[in-house]
Amino acid sequence: MATKIVIDPVSRIEGHLKIEVLVDDGVVKEAKSSGMMYRGLENILLGRDPRDAARIMQRICGVCPTSHGLAAAFALDEAYGVAGSITDNGRILRNLIQGANYVQSHILHFYQLGALDYVDVAACADYSGSDPTLKKVKDFIGRGHLGPFVPRYEGDYRLSKEENRAAVAHYVEALNMRRLAHEAVAIFGGKMPHNMSIVAGGVTAAPSVDKITAFLWKIDQLLDFIDTCYLPDVLLVAGRYSDYFGIGAGCKQFLSFGVFDMDSDPDLTKRHRYFPQGIVKGADLKLRRLDPDKITEEVDSSWFVNHGAVHPYEGSTVPDRDKAGAYSWVKSPRYDGEVLEVGPLARMLAAYAGGDKEVQGLVNGVLQQFNASPEALFSVLGRHAARAIECKLVAEKLKQWVLQLQPGQPTFTDFPLEVTSRGMGLHEAPRGALGHWIVIEGGKTKNYQAVVPTTWNAGPVDSQGQPGPIEQSLIGTKVKDKNNPFELVRIVRSYDPCLSCAVHVVTPRGEDLGHFVVGGEA
Amino acid sequence: LRKAFASAIQETPIIWLAAGACSGCSVSLLNSLSPRIQDVLLDQILPGHHLELAFHPTVMAASGDLAMQAMYDTEEKPFILVVEGSITTADGGRHCEIGEKDGHGITSLEHVTRLGRKAKAVIAIGSCAAFGGIPAANMNPTGSKGVMAVFKEQGIVTPTINLPGCAVHPDWFIGTVAAVLLGGPESVKVDAQGRPEMFYQKLIHDNCPLRGHFDAGRFAEKFGDPYCLYKLGCKGPVAHANCPEKRFNSGTNWCIDNGHPCQGCVEPEYPFDQTMWGTVPIKDATPPSLYPPIVTDLKKSVDVTPAYAALAGVAAGVVGAQVLKKKPARHEDSEGKE
């Protein structure tokens, strides 16, 4: 008998997500992921000063604001014609701001968002040791008011008591660590969340030796944590929950826009980036070139008036909450008609396929530890592991990059404001591929578009009947306990969904905006 | 004894409703240093008080109906409602739904009005919850409103405190919550916008480290110049907050010190019409305007007062009368020369 399980709201993700699955015989037959909020942020930009984008678009998401700010800045750079003349300092500072936030986001995700699926806080109830954190948790439990840790799903916590306790201590420590990571971002970002630093043309912050030193040592502390807590915890969980290497495979096709500029080539597709740009299909681990023209979006299952599969800029999108057959505010992006997953896993695979030795080393190491084949990467744990690996790599790189800063050199390139042009910004947010497009006319924003990672991941089924990646991951999953559908939430959370990002998309009503060439010159 | 002690601690549950939000304020709260967020969650935020985060979709363990149940359970007890994000009111509020009932989603508007009535106090955290914020800008496609605006429409009188900021400074939230715990929401002195005076009274402009440059007339023309950022659109002269003092991220940095003009994110006008980079008027005179310019315009308008008119009239009358009078006037005077 088919039962419907509805999880609304899905907690421990960013934003409003609803999951609806049809379970038949203990196996998920149908899955629907629905973004439950819509804000229309790009509309707000229309007619405004284009430079506002770097600030306003950050408010798409409070966990990854730097990514949106940076994507907007990339698009503005191109539109204002300064993409090729971003100073070295500006470029490096942007990487530092973005990278430090990666570290924050991943730590936040694994511990604050993901951990409670695998860790039993109650193990601390009878703690008798001297660790002050654990004692505090114990007292807390003793008081009996256990929100937000309770209520929760019960019945599948496999770590030993000691391991649980250690994990809880790490959870608390992770709170410190991610705060530290935000401080690191704030050194050059002004404040976090919502940095006040990245602008079109560069960065407003001025590096100085004391800031470099402070940043370096914060990252160092973070690396300590990553090396001693984060990575081991991921591996520990992977060990205890190793069946999850085979759960939540998803579409097994991946997209990465590349991230962390190593130079300032005005053409985004040619710019050299630390994590490379490209498409990886399945376990052949070949890196295919990205052609941005092949990106389309459909709204068949989305609460917008239908327009078929069009390039992000074409057609019109009008909210229609009562549309039959639709169930999400999220659109369905497709590449060349195919479903692609984005995120750390996508980036690690792209980097692996692109020949990055460190990535290959770490990924192979993890696989070896579990005697797993590369297929194992396409799973819940694969995603967690990829995220952890990426976190470590980025942190290491941050330490190198910060030392390349040159205090006293400019960080900003000025530009005239009265332009009529367009620009595209493509890069990777912590959660995956992110693109912003802007059209400026007479110095004011004529049009703005953003296609964000979670749209790729959490998008609904398209006109061809292809479910989105999360949906695909859910389909075929065995659910042991319908009342405690751990599997479902664990799968969803492994994607690190950020729904606020996913549901911002809106284009102006009823206007044909003409053809926009993605990836070409402005 | 511990049990007794434990029960001597007052538990105050919090329902954290995230509506049209970006979660920035939640993340910012995680950055709180003194107390740390773990202290807030696990320990007594103030001696004798513990905040129980009963419902917060971003960090709570439960999902789905389990989570909603937690909310429903809590709302029957005395609780504090914290609203993050704007309340979308367009299309019946269906642009934002949390949880399901009877097969359809429950709008955030519904949540906030129901919870708002029941709460002991409401804290609207972040500019979006306070004034509508970014989603409410320009054409406001979602009909976003601040919490107080919604309450006013619905006639809800629960004491509400606005904590604008984008994202809000964690200290402001912690401080406000502590004040509410200690003395109730009415004990918090708020200004005309409902913002606690203890954080939002001072003007950024008056406490800015670059004020000296402003007074001396040195302005940055582009990012990177070390001078006052007024010309680049700094809203310091109209923004009320204690950012220069508190700074962000445990005092690491703040907008101005990072060379970026203040956006005025605590003000109801945020994000300001047309552009965030336009200059704002300065309310009070500052030294450069108190220096006389090389040429001061002291031109007086010609006083066409009644006195002039009368005088002119009389003179004209006299002259006219004389001219018109012809020969017959024998005894008349002459008008000679002076």
TrEMBL record, chain A:
Gene3D superfamilies cross-referenced by the UniProt entry: Cytochrome-c3 Hydrogenase, chain B (1.10.645.10)
Binding site for Mg(2+): 42, 498, 504
Family matches, as NCBIfam families: NiFeSe_hydrog
Binding, Ni(2+): 61, 64
Record GO terms (molecular function): ferredoxin hydrogenase activity; nickel cation binding
Keywords for this protein: Iron, Magnesium, Metal-binding, Nickel, Oxidoreductase, Periplasm
Transmembrane segments: none
InterPro entries the record matches: Ni-dep_hyd_lsu, Ni-dep_hyd_lsu_Ni_BS, NiFe-Hase_large, NiFe/NiFeSe_hydrgnase_LSU
Binding site for Fe cation: 64, 501
Similarity section: Belongs to the [NiFe]/[NiFeSe] hydrogenase large subunit family.
Pfam families according to UniProt: NiFeSe_Hases
Entry GO CC: periplasmic space
Name of the protein this chain belongs to: Nickel-dependent hydrogenase large subunit
Cofactor: Ni(2+); Fe cation
Assembly behavior: Heterodimer of a large and a small subunit.
